[in-house]
Write a structure and sequence with these properties.
Largest sheet: 7 strands, parallel
Number of strands: 7
CATH superfamily of the largest domain: NAD(P)-binding Rossmann-like Domain
Helix content: 40-55%
Number of helices: 8
Structural class: alpha/beta
CATH topology of the largest domain: Rossmann fold
CATH class of the largest domain: Alpha Beta
CATH architecture of the largest domain: 3-Layer(aba) Sandwich
Bound molecules: NADP nicotinamide-adenine-dinucleotide phosphate
Oligomer: single chain
Distance between the termini: 37 Å
């Protein structure tokens, strides 16, 4: 049974992804911070699938916490789905130096350190697959995501660099750049917006997705299908790519 670490496992995308991969026959190792949510999901995984659903509470933004974590308890790992923690988006490209430092520490340096500590465990696998979850601001500028534009591009550059560096160890590093995803939290926000605009959620979604060629946002399960493909044989000769999972929204070639 292939053992896959999923970070952000308890989130809107992560929980659906974790269940889908566990049902597909992977042994999932869950990471997030909130212990109650981790326990609940871990129980669901172990009670309904063959996966043990081992779960660990760890703040990926904290170098200190990552340094204290005993990675040797994890054993061999065949894959990693890394969802770097995201801070509130801002449209201000001139965030203060302190804010920039916070963004980089939380969303890049911390999760990258976590990734680096997993390399010896990934090297034990015959062919390990790393899937980095990103957003479409890695492919084109989004005016209301000023800091994310920079951080997402930093990750794409790092993923490409790591694909070159780790290829000799049969460790693949690929990125999925997501457009809008209809997580429960996002649907709840849309409901509030629809009420305040005195319209239905269907009409609001129709308006919001009018510039998406497929005329829809993704369901979390559709993200899980794309991750599953990159973890499987589909990517046996693919590394260093950044794939948009955005219904065709991104216009660049
Ligand atoms: N939803 C979308 O439309 C969309 C679009 C593009 C990209 N994405 C990306 O997809 C990923 C998942 O999105 P989502 O909507 O599922 O987010 P979410 O529902 O907010 O879930 C975030 C997950 O990350 C964990 N987390 C947050 N901060 C953490 C930290 N410092 N250390 C460790 N774990 C942490 C959360 O659990 P705890 O709080 O318990 O730690 C939770 O499991 C994110 O990287 C996001 O940027 C999402």
């Amino acid at each position: 049974m292939k053992r896959i670490i999923v970070t952000g496992a308890t989130g809107g995308i992560g929980s659906e992804l974790t269940m889908h991969l566990a049902k597909a026959g992977f042994d999932i190792i869950l990471f997030a911070r909130d212990e109650n949510r981790l326990r609940a999901l871990s129980s669901k995984v172990s009670e309904t699938t063959e996966s043990k659903g081992a779960a660990f509470s760890l703040d990926l933004s904290s170098i200190g916490a990552i340094n204290k974590f005993d990675f040797s308890t994890l054993g061999k790992v065949d894959g990693l789905v890394l969802m770097p923690p995201q801070l509130e988006p801002t449209a201000d490209p001139f965030a203060s130096p302190e804010a920039w430092k916070k963004y980089f520490d939380a969303s890049f340096i911390g999760p990258l350190h976590f990734f680096s500590r997993l390399i010896p465990l990934l090297k034990e696998s015959e062919r390990a697959k790393v899937v980095l979850i990103s957003g479409i601001s890695s492919l084109q500028v989004l005016s209301h995501y000023a800091t994310s534009n920079v951080l997402r591009c930093a990750w794409v550059a790092q993923a490409k660099t790591l694909a070159h560096y780790l290829g000799k160890d049969s460790i693949h590093v690929n990125t999925l750049s997501l457009g809008g995803v209809l997580t429960d939290e996002y649907v709840a926000e849309l409901k509030v917006e629809a009420e305040s605009e005195k319209t239905s959620i269907e009409k609001l979604l129709e308006k919001e997705t009018s510039n998406v060629p497929l005329k829809k946002y993704a369901k979390p399960l559709e993200i899980a299908y794309a991750v599953e493909a990159l973890l499987g044989n589909f990517s046996d000769h693919i590394t260093g790519v950044n794939i948009a999972v955005d219904g065709g929204f991104t216009k660049a070639y």
